[in-house]
Amino acid sequence: xxxxxxIILTPNGGEVFxxxxxxxxxxxxxxxxxxxxxxxxxxxxxxxxxxxTTLNNGYYLWSISNDIFASKKxxxxxxxxxxxxxFDFSNEDFEIKN
Length: 98
Hints:
Elements: E1 6-10, E2 16-18, E3 22-29, E4 35-42, E5 45-55, E6 59-63, E7 71-80, E8 87-89, E9 94-97
Parallel strand pairs: 2-9
Antiparallel strand pairs: 1-3, 3-6, 4-5, 4-7, 7-8, 7-9
């Protein structure tokens, strides 16, 4: 297994998501049990969490709300709850459209 603790697979840059749809967020981890928090950022600014806590099982089904504004500058951060030094950001921006 590669030498990492947590790494985002998707969305990791270039994806296009749509409001009022569901998309899977995927990540890999190296033997980190417990839970993660998934946060949403737009143009570098924290917008809130996608999910406050979910199992660190490598995926989460995100129901994208119609309340989120359209932008090409979104990133997510996945952060391990029990060890907050373990986290990853999307490498590049992804887009949310109407």
